[in-house]
Hints:
alpha+beta, disordered C terminus, about 15% strand, about 30% helix, five-stranded parallel β-sheet, binds adenosine-5'-diphosphate
Amino acid sequence: MQRGSSRRELAARWEEEAVASDKAPAAAEQVLVDAGAAGETERETAEERCKDQARAQPRAAEEGDARVAPRPPPTLRPKPKPAPARGLCPHGNPRSKGSSCKRCSGRRSDQSCTLRPVTVDSSKARTSLDALKISIRQLKWKEFPFGRRSPCDIYWHGVSFHDNDILSGQVNKFPGMTEMVRKITLSRAVRIMQNLFPEEYNFYPRSWILPDEFQLFVAQGRMVKDGDPSWKPTFIVKPDGGCQGDGIYLIKDPSDIRLAGILQSRPAVVQEYICKPLLIDKLKFDIRLYVLLKSLDPLEIYIAKDGLSRFCTEPYQEPNPKNLHHVFMHLTNYSLNIHSSNFVHSDSTSTGSKRTFSSILCRLSSKGVDIKKVWSDIISLVIKTVIALTPELKVFYQSDIPVGRPGPTCFQILGFDILLMKNLKPMLLEVNANPSMRIEHEQELSPGVFENVPSLVDEEVKVAVIRDTLRLMDPLKKKRENQNCKLSSSSLSMASVDILYIDITRRWNSVTLDQRDSGMCLQAFTEACFYLAQRKFKMLPLHEQVASLIDLCEHHLSVLDERRLMCGRSGTSGGRAPYSGPPQEAAPSAPLAEGNPPPCANSAHKLSHSRHTLS
Length: 615
Ligand code: ADP
């Protein structure tokens, strides 16, 4: 994954191996099975809307965590422990060649066993539970499926920020997100930006809000037509708060809008219909991309490098009065197309009615399409959309979690629905606050008899998204990194530094009179320094070796101090720092740094990272 540290440097790549682009697998066709995802999402969304309206209780006073931590004393290990006997691992269990004790197993030796596992409350995870469980298991973290009396590090909510009353830790929902991505609110937020930056925000179809803007819609339609009589538009009407294609219909003329009754009780968005989508196998498809909003202030966005492509099940034709009502031709919703006899459940991620997005990119690439450009346009669309939503999200955030009050920090996985036009330009259709994370789908075994079966394509994409999100949010990551004294190299493993520490400490403890202090005495520390300096800087005289070692350590400590200072200045993630300026102060979005497209392969779950600082 690329990491952008300045506000102009937008895209970054996972630093973790699972998302490192340099390990991007080679292009490969994949296998797929389809799954039941999208449907559940929207059901949850409606539920969340109700719940989210009940605002959280004001919280008790306290907190402030942006201070610079004192510089650690110069010990080799932050928490010295009594040394176990030779031949034992640091836990005192027998150490045999190539093996480690249970507590050590599965961890790199530099990921100190002294750190407790990250704790995750999954009691409110609902339909994302299966994918979450797998992710937690893969990370060797600790799940609390029924909640926990003491606080957890991370709370995973299936629906809303307000699912739980949380005073600390991190929660995977932002307050107000559901409201912000409703069709009408999203259209309004994007329109503000379209008015300011029409060129930058031309990735969202022209939209009007009904019933309020019906007259405007008619008037503008007429105006365009007067200027260009050959213009024969189609419009799509989408009820606000609707989902799974529910209540959506196409029209050719504004007078076809079903204004009576329904619109009064159920406002809607009417939008220019994109008549020339990119087709694959003659079918229209859309893209579901997963985007992690890691923090509002500074604005940090990660984009999953693989998503899902959901296909229509009837060959596409440009809209005409005869086919306007053909939902299997015009609407890509999984929840609709699953009912078509043409729906294909596939065992491959690159065929069938639901595929990985990377498999689509592979296919396009093989036809000579510049997929770097496609990808960078998508990144740009995502960033600009989030920028459009950010000011109001900050208002929600500050009202729910005022600065100085205890409360969790927030992050959220969003589902972006994107349509590629024939000319490969990505267009935003909508944003989902609760993208389905289900990794199984319903299959009709015999008429009326359904069974949930695992969906490979969903599992492949979604587990990776959740796991990598958890990694990014890992609250102990910094501690783990800080614990690593950065001395390790190919010639000096952290395991050998551990052993050195144990050996020297035990030897000196056995000769010092005062053994009240556990850990290393000064002489032992000096000896260890000399030893490490000799190992690390082989060709120099001893005093230069030691000086180089001290330089190296001081360098790493100052880097740490700088990072802490920066954290102190920018406040905690999740938007707790004071509001730092209007969104237009942000640098214009740049495409993915180095223009790396998502890898075209089955393990392509990398996220790219964009960091904006709005100050
Ligand atoms: P819902 O939340 O009900 O799924 P969407 O906005 O996602 O509503 O629209 C449903 C489907 O309709 C999309 O998946 C897409 O296939 C199609 N669609 C929506 N808006 C447009 C548009 N402006 N042009 C072409 N197709 C569209």
